[in-house]
């Protein structure tokens, strides 16, 4: 494929993922804002928030995200992938306005839940859209964009949040959603959606834009997509179909991937990053340490799209699982020594930053981007709209459990317990990737279905 045509795919997918950057900003919001909410003088609540309230503020976004995928799947099917993504800006706008005017805890709770709906919608539709506009040889890279762009959002909130007021943080969030809505308005729809609506001409025009080629040059690809769509129509999917044959294999692989992604501890780390650095007593300013980790996350996530289609999914998952296990193990060891007042702690005060940088680097190379990229590849078209919302909802149920209970576990029995549990799950991810994860690099959707036993 010619460079200019590949460039088109990357630009369009990048534009779609600006919404994911906005989501990263929402997800990372708690890291710098928790200290503002607990400040007796500057809290917008007029009083400091309690530990219990902070835990609920952190975790309630995941409750909204459990329901968001079902709205996302419905809008993607009814009004299209493009307009489904655009519709997700509505709960984002509402949430930011509520955050900006909030003077009470219930309003913050409601805003976080509404944000969560948008998160669930975007995590469902964005991989679907990127998978459907991509060629076989760039599908892994475009699928990896989600992780790369969400880290940009985290870095933005880490850089902005500690140094401006609570209200400025909200205004920046609103502005970013507006930038996405304006720019993505001019992007094309997925050709698959047009064919699902019997609009072959619309699909052809869309492919011409995506590939930068005249009609004659995209006709063979159009026919291939049309045959996939026609085959999917003959097998209209229900929830029961998800649990049959190759679909069930795709489903349990997808669920295990998001299980390991969440139980490696990523959201506990990112939601409470500043709190972790404060608890560690490291000499480095916690806000600066948070920014360093955020910057490392962006750099590493930006590298993944360029290697995922060269090295393959499985090898990156193996490297990632091994590295995150080491990072969590080191972090757990530091907090265990600290809890037992070991004299060695002062001489290894650098270890929390080093461990988290290692963890983030390894996460961004595999456990972060690849579950979503692989999920977008495993399901046939007719099953994708049914299965993807279930998998995404499962992901956010796990996220809620982790983000709600992590502060409680940390306060009661120590942070080291949580980090050792996360490390153990990373070891489990290594063996799952080694023994059960299929390699989808360079394979067409039809070849993947044959490999899964789906015919």
Q: What does the model show?
A:
The protein is built from 23 helices and no strands. It has 455 residues and is an all-alpha fold. Helix 17 packs parallel to helix 19 (351-367). The two termini are 29 Å apart.
Let me know the number of strands: 0
- Helix count from the secondary structure assignment: 23
Structural class call reads mainly alpha
- In whole angstroms, the N-to-C terminal distance is 29 Å
Overall pLDDT, averaged?
Answer: 86
GO molecular function: sugar transmembrane transporter activity
Transmembrane segments: 12-34, 54-76, 83-103, 109-129, 141-160, 166-187, 250-273, 288-308, 315-337, 349-374, 386-407, 413-437
Protein name: Major facilitator superfamily (MFS) profile domain-containing protein
Organism: Euphydryas editha
Briefly say what this structure is.
Helices cover 80% and strands 0% of the residues.
Output the keywords.
single chain; 455 residues; mainly alpha; 23 helices; globular
In terms of topology, how is this protein built?
Elements: H1 3-16, H2 18-27, H3 30-37, H4 51-78, H5 81-87, H6 89-101, H7 105-133, H8 139-160, H9 166-184, H10 191-196, H11 200-211, H12 215-233, H13 239-242, H14 245-263, H15 266-271, H16 273-280, H17 286-311, H18 313-339, H19 351-367, H20 370-378, H21 381-412, H22 415-435, H23 445-452
């Amino acid at each position: 494929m010619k460079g200019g045509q590949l460039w088109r795919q990357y630009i369009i997918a990048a534009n779609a993922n600006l919404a994911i950057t906005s989501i990263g900003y929402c997800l990372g919001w708690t890291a710098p804002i928790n200290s503002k909410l607990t400040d007796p003088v500057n809290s917008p609540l007029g009083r400091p928030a309690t530990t219990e309230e902070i835990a609920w503020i952190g975790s309630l976004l995941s409750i909204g995200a459990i329901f968001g995928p079902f709205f996302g799947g419905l809008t993607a099917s009814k009004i299209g992938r493009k307009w489904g993504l655009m519709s997700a800006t509505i709960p984002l706008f509402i949430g930011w306005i509520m955050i900006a005017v909030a003077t009470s805890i219930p309003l913050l709770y409601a805003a976080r839940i509404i944000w969560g709906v948008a998160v669930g919608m975007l995590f469902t539709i964005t991989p679907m859209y990127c998978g459907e506009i991509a060629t076989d040889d760039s599908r892994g890279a475009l699928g990896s964009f989600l992780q790369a762009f969400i880290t940009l959002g985290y870095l933005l909130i880490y850089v902005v949040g500690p140094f401006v007021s609570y209200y400025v943080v909200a205004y920046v969030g609103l502005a970013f959603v507006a930038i996405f809505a304006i720019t993505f308005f001019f992007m094309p729809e997925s050709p698959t959606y047009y064919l699902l609506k019997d609009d072959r001409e619309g699909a052809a025009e869309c492919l011409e834009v995506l590939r930068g080629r005249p009609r004659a040059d995209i006709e063979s690809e159009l026919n291939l997509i049309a045959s996939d769509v026609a085959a999917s129509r003959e097998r209209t999917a229900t929830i029961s179909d998800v649990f049959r044959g190759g679909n069930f294999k795709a489903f349990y692989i997808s669920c295990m991937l998001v299980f390991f992604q969440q139980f490696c501890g990523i959201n506990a780390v990112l939601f409470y990053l500043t709190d972790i650095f404060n608890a560690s007593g490291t000499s480095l300013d916690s806000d600066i340490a948070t920014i360093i980790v955020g910057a490392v996350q962006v750099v590493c996530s930006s590298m993944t799209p360029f290697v995922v289609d060269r090295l393959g999914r499985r090898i990156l998952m193996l490297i990632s699982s091994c590295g995150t296990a080491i990072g969590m193990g080191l972090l757990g060891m530091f907090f265990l020594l600290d809890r037992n007042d070991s004299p060695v702690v002062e001489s290894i005060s650098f270890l929390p930053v080093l461990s988290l940088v290692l963890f983030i680097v390894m996460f961004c190379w595999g456990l972060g981007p690849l579950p979503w990229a692989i999920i977008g590849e495993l399901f046939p078209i007719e099953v994708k709209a049914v299965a993807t919302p279930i998998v995404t909802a499962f992901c956010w149920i796990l996220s809620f459990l982790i983000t709600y209970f992590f502060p409680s576990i940390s306060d009661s029995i120590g942070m080291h317990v949580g980090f050792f549990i996360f490390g153990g799950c990373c070891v489990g991810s290594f063996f799952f990737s080694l023994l059960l994860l299929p390699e989808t690099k360079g394979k067409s959707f039809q070849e993947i279905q044959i490999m899964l036993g789906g015919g």
